[in-house]
Design a protein that fits this description.
heterodimer; A: alpha+beta; Alpha-Beta Plaits; 9-stranded mixed sheet; two-stranded antiparallel sheet; 6 helices; elongated; B: alpha/beta; pyruvate-formate lyase- activating enzyme; 6-stranded mixed sheet; 4-stranded parallel sheet; 20 helices; about 35% helix
């Protein structure tokens, strides 16, 4: 069986890289005392996977780690053990026990909701561009990938964008083939407004997937 | 905006922001209002280096075991962060609560190597604490400890107290004294006088130094009426089984230099290598019992989740029941997939059984330190190791599947000749032949031999404290001689460095109080992070010496007469000057002194109550 754990990444720990977080969890699961399943092979490690990597400097209320257990465990006991093994600024928010056939969290992720808070000059000008952005059919953008730069149309990757006083909420595509990151989006809006991109605090609110009927739901509710 | 928020603002634009982040698992948080004493513990180097240091972990957790005190960590910010902190008026801060260091009661600083001294001035300045003790009217008392505290004289203008020897008990006593001092509302100097009565605490401001016409020290004497002792004996923990040891360790997020459980299996060393300061100042040898170690290991594994335990000491192969300890450790932790590592391997002590045990879980490069290339020179330095020992160890290791060997040497040891230098290449060649003597189907492929040669630095409180350091040009010539000899050997890598850092290190190791001027000048000229070769500014150091009228050769390369008074003679490290002098004279004759477990060699440690029982 597997434990899908939802945890938050609070501001203080926003500079832990994804790689460091993976290493951190290797040790954290050792501290839980839970019956962790280990991989086979030359270099065994605890079997675990993440929902979606969070960029350095971002915070989140919806990070997922999925840990495989070698023996059945109750949800409450698992939650308590994980909670005790994590620091204050990586708090456990929810745990769901699933069986081994349940899809891996990464395969479930379709979209993510973000709250972007802008600071400084240019913030207002950027927010004013949101209706224009949403009204367009094509917003060309250059996306940096591992293999180089790629031209994309950013517009269909942005499902929704709602401004508030000093920022906006956005629902963005997040699959292996189609994804856009909030910082790229801020850059596009800044270009449209003709301003420098201001400082932005990026916070992930939810990871979303689709159920059998195609309804969008938070990952842990699928 | 709070200090913490202002710090956060900077972190987006610095390298490795995790260095300044805090919030790690097992970091100790307390309510500041619930404690009487706030203790800032500075490791004057980067987070990654400092967090790998065992002494800091021991003291951090032992101070925090008290309800009335809170110890927080402070590290030297890297140069990028230091610059941003100055530009944004952000003072040096603690990691846990992000409190300015100047608001603490005590600032403890560990002195692990001389090349961190400028970082101490940098830290005081960033903290907004006046550099010189006499300019301070408030703020934390500055206490230094650690191996370099046995010659703290170059730092004397900047510190209040020096803690000699084992820190576990004396640190607690300085905190107790602080509480009494504060409660009594006494003037600042009174705290120093109270501390002068604590075993192991040296209060430099209570001593006068006089000099001879030739520039050497004439005498260091306590000021009359100060109550300070003429000689300060180091503090010594008698029984390590009863001494505090952390049961929890902070688990960092980023990778640090040594990211694993460190278990100190014993303190001290009985070998008596004549170049080795640690081997002298950490005497006597005190072992922890296997049961104590097993219990600590179990607690640490479950509180940290680490998958590796390093058995630490100056010479782990010398632990009296090493095979049993290794066996029990491996047996207990193999199921939890925790590896056991033995560092500081000595070639005469590589136990085949132990190797097999360790190998069961992990196979790393075999690290050996013959230190010198010929038997004659190894006898001079009293490295009680023969070529046969080395050959046997590496042959065993190659036979059991090792293919990587690291060999450590020093260049410029007293009495060294070209024959000794070339002896290093001979030894590397013999190691190579050992590998090829193993049938091809039995040995692991990919032989790698790494020869590292550092430059010998004569240290205070060693038998070689009378020795001149080899001059710069001659070091370079011998490095090139060795490089050419090793270039002929396939599969052998040679690592060496310019002798400039070792030269400055030698100046400070045997420096005196006047050196403080040069230190401050060097810092003002931009020297800091001197242990990092990309930051080290040799030209600025030379300029600093010139501007302050200090001749560095006087400290580094001058031969010393046997009746010279040293700047550190009033600090008793346990081993007597008479013993060291005897060893220095035996070294000239290439005469060995056996390991003192085979019979007391009269080093002076027995003068300490409870030592060597």
């Amino acid at each position: 069986m597997r434990a899908m754990i939802r945890f938050a990444k609070r501001p203080r720990l926003r500079f832990i890289s994804h790689l460091d977080l993976q290493r951190f969890f290797q040790r954290a699961v050792n501290r839980t005392g839970l019956p962790i399943a280990w991989s086979q092979g030359f270099n065994p490690h605890p079997v675990m996977s993440f929902g979606s990597a969070l960029a350095l400097g971002w915070t989140s209320d919806y990070e997922i780690i999925d840990i495989k257990l070698s023996a059945p465990m109750g949800r409450k006991r698992t939650e308590d053990a994980i909670r005790a093994a994590l620091p204050e600024d990586l708090p456990v928010l929810d745990v769901r026990m699933v069986d081994d056939r349940h899809p891996a969290p990464m395969a479930l992720v379709k979209m993510a909701d973000y709250r972007v808070t802008l600071d400084g000059e240019g913030a207002g000008a950027i927010l004013a561009q949101i209706p224009a952005f949403m009204a367009r059919e094509n917003v060309p953008a250059v996306k940096k990938t591992k293999s180089g730069e790629k031209e994309i149309n950013a517009r269909p990757l942005v499902i929704s964008m709602e401004p508030f006083e000093n920022g906006f909420n956005a629902r963005l595509m997040l699959t292996e083939r189609e994804s856009i990151k909030p910082d790229l989006l801020i850059g596009l809006l800044a270009d449209m407004a003709g301003v420098e991109p201001p400082e932005a605090a990026i916070h992930r609110l939810t990871l979303l997937g689709e159920d059998g009927e195609g309804n969008l739901k938070p990952l842990l509710e699928l | 905006m709070s200090l913490s928020d202002r710090i956060e603002k900077l972190l987006m634009s610095v390298q490795k922001p995790v260095r300044y982040m805090g919030g790690e698992f097992n970091a100790v948080m307390k309510d500041p209002d619930s404690v009487d004493v706030r203790y800032a513990f500075l490791f004057p180097d980067t987070y990654e280096v400092g967090m790998s240091h065992l002494g800091m972990k021991i003291l951090y957790h032992s101070i925090n075991a008290r309800d009335d005190a809170w110890c927080e960590r402070v590290f030297s910010p890297w140069v990028d962060m230091a610059q941003l902190m100055r530009e944004n008026d952000i003072p040096l801060f603690s990691l846990e609560s992000r409190t300015p260091v100047k608001d603490f009661d005590i600032l403890g600083i560990t002195l692990q190597y001389e090349m961190s001294f400028t970082n101490i001035l940098e830290a005081l300045d960033l903290a907004g604490i006046p550099l010189r003790r006499e300019d301070r009217t408030g703020g934390p008392f500055v206490i230094v400890g650690g191996p370099c505290a046995f010659n703290p004289e170059p730092l004397v203008p900047f510190v209040d107290l020096v803690a000699l020897g084992d820190g576990e008990e004396e640190t607690q006593q300085t905190i107790d004294a602080y509480k009494q001092w504060k409660a009594a509302g006494l003037p600042r100097e009174e705290y120093l006088k109270m501390c002068a009565r604590i075993p192991g605490i040296y209060v430099p401001s209570l001593y006068d130094v006089t000099y001879n016409d030739d520039g050497t020290v004439k005498a260091v004497t306590p000021k009359s009426g100060s109550g300070a002792p003429a000689v300060v004996k180091k503090a010594m923990v008698k029984d390590l089984d009863k001494a505090v040891y952390p049961e929890k360790l902070i688990v960092p997020y980023g990778e640090i230099v040594h990211n694993r459980i460190m278990l100190e299996i014993f303190r001290g060393c009985t070998r008596g290598c004549r170049f080795c300061q640690a081997g002298m100042i950490y005497r006597p040898i005190r072992e922890r019992k296997i049961d104590t170690l097993m219990a600590l290991a179990e607690k640490l594994v479950s509180s940290t989740g680490y998958d590796e335990i390093s058995l630490m000491s100056l010479s782990s192969g010398d632990y009296s029941c090493l095979p049993e300890l290794a066996h029990r450790m491996v047996e207990k932790f193999a199921a939890k997939r925790v590896r056991i590592a033995l560092p500081s391997q000595r070639i005469d002590n590589v136990l085949t059984d132990t190797l097999k045990e360790t190998q069961k879980v992990k196979k790393t490069a075999l690290t050996l330190a013959p230190e010198a290339g010929t038997q004659r020179l190894r006898d001079v330095i009293n490295k009680g190791v023969t070529e046969e020992d080395l050959i046997r160890s590496v042959t065993d290791a190659f036979d059991q599947g090792w293919s990587a060997v690291k060999l450590y040497f020093m260049l410029g040891l007293p009495t060294e000749t070209d024959e000794d230098v070339l002896g290093i290449a001979d030894l590397a060649e013999k190691v190579r032949r050992c590998y090829f003597s193993i049938p091809k189907e039995r040995r692991a492929p990919g032989l790698r031999i790494t020869v590292s040669a550092s430059v010998f630095v004569p240290k205070n409180d060693t038998p070689f404290q009378w020795s001149p350091q080899l001059n710069y040009d001659e070091v370079v010539r011998r490095q090139q001689l060795l490089r050419q000899a090793l270039a002929r050997l396939k599969g052998v890598d040679f690592k060496y460095h310019a002798p400039d850092i070792s030269y400055i290190e030698a100046v400070f190791a045997r420096g005196d109080r006047r050196m403080g001027e040069a230190l401050e000048r060097a810092w003002r000229l931009g020297c800091r992070m001197d242990g990092w070769s990309d930051q080290f500014k040799y030209d600025m150091w030379l300029k600093a010496f010139e501007e302050t009228g200090i001749d560095p050769d006087f400290y580094a390369t001058r031969p010393r007469s046997t009746d010279e008074v040293f700047p550190w003679d009033h600090l008793d490290c346990g081993v007597t000057k008479q013993y060291m002098l005897r060893e220095w004279e035996k070294a000239q004759r290439a005469e060995c002194t056996p390991d003192c477990r085979k019979g007391c060699t009269g080093c002076g440690m027995k003068r300490y109550e409870g030592a060597c029982v």
